Structure formats: C-alpha cells, structure tokens
Amino acid sequence: MKTAVVTGGASGIGLGIAQRLRSDGLHVATMDLNPPVDDDLAYRADVSDPEEIAAALTAVRDRLGPVTVLVNAAGVDGFKRFQNISFPEWQRVIEVNLHGVFHTTQAVLPDMLAAGWGRIVNISSSSTHSGQPFMSHYVSAKSAVNGLTKALALELGPSGITVNAVPPGFIDTPMLRRSEEARRLGGSVEEHIQRTPVRRVGTPGDIAAACAFLISEEAGYITGQILGVNGGRNT
Ligand SMILES: NC(=O)c1ccc[n+]([C@@H]2O[C@H](COP(=O)([O-])OP(=O)(O)OC[C@H]3O[C@@H](n4cnc5c(N)ncnc54)[C@H](O)[C@@H]3O)[C@@H](O)[C@H]2O)c1
Predict the structure, then answer these.
(1) Does this model's pTM top 0.90?
(2) Residue owning the nearest CA to atom 36 of ligand 1
C-alpha cells in the first residue's frame, strides 16, 4: 500500500484530497498548522519550517514507511493593495505558499528517489491564469509554484517521479467563504455561480478527483502539466 502526505489536510481542498486518497486505499498522513485531534494520522507542522516538516515526516515514516505520494495543498491567501503590503506580509505569503512546497518536497524526495517512483501534485491557483488585484504576493507565490512544477518535472522524470500542478478556481472551502464574508470576491458565491460556465461552485472533491488521477499508475506519462479545475472560469 502506498503512503501519501497531504499538506493543508485539515481543511477544505487538502481535507477533501486526504479523504479521497484514503478511500482509494492509500495510507494518508496529513500535515497542517491545525490538525484535527480525532485523526491519529494528522500531524502538526508549519510547512514554512523545515524542522517541523522533518519531525513530522520522521513520525510518518516510522508509522507508515516511505512516502511516495505528496500533495502540497497548504496555503494562505492575502488581500491588500500592492503599495500597502508590508515586506513581512509579502514574505509570509511567499514562505507558506512557495517555500512550503520547497521544504516539503525536498524532505519527501529521498523516499521517491529510493523507490524509483513518485507522484507530486502542487495545488496552485487559477489566479495564476487570470491575475488577481490585491493579491500580488499570493499570485506571485502560486505562479512560482507552477514554474517549480515544470522545472521539477524535467529534473525528476528520469527518476520515475511525475510532478504536476492543479490550480483550483472558485472551490467552496472555508478560504472561499472567508473571502465572501470579507466582500473580497466582487459578489456573492451565488452571483459568481451565474458567471461560471458549469453553473456551480467547485467542491474539494473536484480537486481531489484530479489529484487521484494524477497520482495513479495510468497517469505516468503526464508530467509538468498545469491542470486547471475551475468550472471553465479560466480556459
Ligand atoms: N478555495 C479556492 O477556491 C482556492 C482557489 C485557488 C487556490 N486555492 C488553494 O488551495 C489550497 C487549499 O485552500 P482551501 O481553499 O482548502 O483553504 P483552507 O483555508 O480551507 O485550507 C488551507 C489549510 O492549509 C493550512 N495551512 C495554512 N498555512 C499553513 C502552514 N504554514 N503550514 C501548514 N498548514 C497550513 C490551514 O491550517 C488549512 O487547514 C491552498 O493552497 C489555496 O491557496 C484554493
């Protein structure tokens, strides 16, 4: 049985991915700032802290063996006019969304290299297609994640490891509802549904389905791709 790590697995998209991969028969450990207490495979780690990642990963390996599937879903958004973003605010968004992928991927990679097989899926954002006002730090970090995905795919392909990105758009999670509540969406979720080609909001399950495919054996010829899951809002 394969072992997967899902970062950001305590909420929203990461939680949906962890549930889906478990139901597909993988061992799944999650790493999150706020792990649920009732899940003994949920580990606390801040992805921007390499020591916390290393400690959690040691515990996961002891319990479940080498990790050959990694989904980087932990993320934080930010919403501020560019000229008002302080450098520490800029840095924090980059640290979590980009450096978090760096730290976690680098920590897990030895297991994949030893196995000669691995699957990495990075959850970026549809704002990398469209841009997004007042989210310049977030869009910068997520765009870099797409770039990292492409570069790593080329580097790791010869080692049997695929690396792909899924940029979600308009997925019903606590992050989206917080943005709605703070009136950052430019309309309610209901109003946005009318502007979405498939006429519904996305679910964590929609993103999880894409991840489940990308980590499957039959997706082994797919790497370095950015697979948008956004109801047709970005094409
Ligand atoms: N919801 C959407 O429409 C949408 C759109 C584009 C991109 N995304 C991306 O999808 C991913 C999941 O977002 P979501 O909507 O489920 O949000 P969410 O806020 O519901 O979940 C994010 C999870 O990440 C965890 N997290 C945050 N910072 C962390 C850190 N430093 N270390 C470890 N864990 C941390 C949080 O505790 C939380 O459990 C994020 O990367 C987000 O940027 C979401």
Answers:
(1) yes
(2) 8
Whole-angstrom CA distances from 83 to 89, 116, 138, 144, 216 are: 12, 46, 14, 21, 44
Q: Name the catalytic one among 43, 90, 138, 170.
A: 138
178 band by pLDDT with thresholds 50, 70 and 90: very high
Q: How many domains does the chain have?
A: 1
Is any ligand 1 atom within 6 A of the Cβ of residue 73?
Answer: yes
Q: What is the residue range of 141's domain?
A: 3-170+204-215
Q: What CATH code is carried by the domain that includes residue 25?
A: 3.40.50.720
Report the nearest atom of ligand 1 relative to the CA of 176: 1
Instruction: Confirm whether 118 is domain-assigned.
Output: yes
Q: pLDDT by residue (tens digit) across 94-136?
A: 999 999 999 999 999 999 999 999 999 999 999 999 999 999 9
Q: Is the CB of 76 under 6 A from ligand 1?
A: yes
Beta strands 161-166; 3-7: pairing state? unpaired
